[in-house]
Amino acid sequence: MTSRTATDEASFYSNAEDYWKEISPTVDGMLGGYGSISNIDINGSKTFLQRFLGDGEGKTGSGCALDCGAGIGRITKRLLLPLFKTVDLVDVTQEFLDKAKTYLGEEGKRVGNYFCYGLQDFVPESGRYDVIWIQWVVGHLTDDHLVDFLRRCQKALRPNGLIVIKDNVSYEGVIPDEVDSSVCRDLNIVCSLVRRAGLRIVHQEQQKNFPKELYQVHTLAIR
Ligand SMILES: C[S@@+](CC[C@H](N)C(=O)[O-])C[C@H]1O[C@@H](n2cnc3c(N)ncnc32)[C@H](O)[C@@H]1O
């Protein structure tokens, strides 16, 4: 890597950190002013996840989940804590994790760990998680860091564990967002990065009923 590339990469991450430090620790802040879509999002995720959970051969357990790029814990509160005994959160913005401690209320007692890390640096504990949920954050990682993070996630799964990526996808190619210092990739690119990590897509869906002006959102179950 040339020093110029290293500098670009460093500013890609530091600009994103600076952006999120200025965002209010609310559901609206997490969703770029679209707090009103949170219910539709969570209900879609619940239906998606439930097909993998339950008793029986090959089913994913309900012991421990990891919420990646968790923010204030919007997904932890409404999706993960109701389905899993323990949930860990990881996010690069300390202020959001601090807010999560009150936002999650009583049920927040079942949070195991609040990890303040960039996903590019985070090493999840080996064999700890039934589900690793990664939503609206993969665009903040470079291709190589995303691939490496997914590899580490695979090692962190329990038997029959599942990684879920839910994110915006572009119509074609990689669209940079200079405001929050992220990229939006098309579905083929995301799928090829997943495969590069040595993982397999076991199910894939488009989230329905989001406002037309937003990017399409796809949910991928991988292991
Ligand atoms: C669009 S918000 C989504 C929050 C949450 N996933 C949700 O759907 O409610 C993006 C989150 O990613 C976090 N983030 C940005 N870059 C990150 C990185 N490199 N590693 C970990 N978290 C990051 C931000 O602090 C913010 O909480």
TrEMBL record:
<keyword id="KW-0539">Nucleus</keyword>
<keyword id="KW-0808">Transferase</keyword>
<keyword id="KW-0949">S-adenosyl-L-methionine</keyword>
<dbReference type="InterPro" id="IPR008576">
    <property type="entry name" value="MeTrfase_NTM1"/>
</dbReference>
<keyword id="KW-0489">Methyltransferase</keyword>
<feature type="binding site">
    <location>
        <position position="69"/>
    </location>
    <ligand>
        <name>S-adenosyl-L-methionine</name>
    </ligand>
</feature>
<dbReference type="GO" id="GO:0005634">
    <property type="term" value="C:nucleus"/>
</dbReference>
<feature type="binding site">
    <location>
        <position position="74"/>
    </location>
    <ligand>
        <name>S-adenosyl-L-methionine</name>
    </ligand>
</feature>
<comment type="similarity">
    <text>Belongs to the methyltransferase superfamily. NTM1 family.</text>
</comment>
<protein>
    <recommendedName>
        <fullName>protein N-terminal methyltransferase</fullName>
        <ecNumber>2.1.1.244</ecNumber>
    </recommendedName>
</protein>
<dbReference type="GO" id="GO:0032259">
    <property type="term" value="P:methylation"/>
</dbReference>
<feature type="binding site">
    <location>
        <begin position="119"/>
        <end position="120"/>
    </location>
    <ligand>
        <name>S-adenosyl-L-methionine</name>
    </ligand>
</feature>
<feature type="binding site">
    <location>
        <begin position="91"/>
        <end position="93"/>
    </location>
    <ligand>
        <name>S-adenosyl-L-methionine</name>
    </ligand>
</feature>
<dbReference type="GO" id="GO:0071885">
    <property type="term" value="F:N-terminal protein N-methyltransferase activity"/>
</dbReference>
<dbReference type="InterPro" id="IPR029063">
    <property type="entry name" value="SAM-dependent_MTases_sf"/>
</dbReference>
<dbReference type="GO" id="GO:0005737">
    <property type="term" value="C:cytoplasm"/>
</dbReference>
<feature type="binding site">
    <location>
        <position position="135"/>
    </location>
    <ligand>
        <name>S-adenosyl-L-methionine</name>
    </ligand>
</feature>
<dbReference type="Pfam" id="PF05891">
    <property type="entry name" value="Methyltransf_PK"/>
</dbReference>
